[in-house]
Amino acid sequence: MSRGCVCVFAKPPRPGTVKTRLASVLGDEGAAALARAFLLDTWSTVRRVSGVDVVLAATEVDAAEWPSLDGAEVWPQGAGTLGDRLERVLRRALETHPFAIAIGTDIPGLPLSRLDDACGALRTADAVLGPADDGGFYLIGVSTYPHGLLDTVQWSASDTCVRTLERFERHHLTTTVIDPWFDVDEPADLHTLRRRIRDGTIHAPETARILGAATAIKSSRADV
């Protein structure tokens, strides 16, 4: 059976440029460290998916941060909206693979089963979508990508997932919706993340290590 392609969208985890909304509680350096941990944990999970090739879709192809990703093949996202960049990368993947999936890196601890479900769905469906708790989506996958598929979707909105499904329907794509997951964008999301790490419902060792260090630093400052 032909191998699919999973494209991990990321930008270099540098202070002041990533997870800026988390910097209010973690600081710029802490937010960048957490973003790097998200990337490493997500990459580790994706590398365990059977029957797929994995590529990094990067905002900077030659960034110094990428060699830590075990010889990753790096593709440029290019310019434009998220829809433009998704189309560019997914269509490139479909040139050599029967299906392609895109995910971000703000989903530490994403269960391997979600990715397996998405790959399984795309063996027969035209598209697959993984809804996020905030109204967006954490995963999108296609076996065909009509030009301009997501042109009118408003990003980072409470109905982004719904609008995306409407676009799939308008283009007559058979679609599977897999189980939802959460992403980490706002300070409040850190509480959910910490709780799920503590109760063992997610496995994200790099993220757990950084959060533990951040908690220790915060506690030591409170004791001064």
Name its key features.
globular; 224 residues; alpha/beta; 7 strands; 7-stranded mixed sheet; disordered C terminus; 6 helices
Short description:
α1 links the parallel β1 (4-10) and β2 (52-58). The protein has 6 helices and 7 strands, in the order βαββαβαββαβαα. By secondary structure, it is an alpha/beta fold.
Describe this entry's structure for a reader.
- With 224 residues, this protein is α/β, with parallel strands linked by helices.
- It has helices at 23-46, 82-94, 112-121, 160-170, 187-198, 205-223; strands spanning 4-10, 52-58, 73-76, 100-103, 127-131, 137-142, 175-177.
- It has a 7-stranded mixed sheet with strand order 3-2-1-4-6-5-7, sandwiched between helices.
- The radius of gyration is 17 Å and the shape is globular.
- Mean pLDDT is 91; it is low at 215-224.
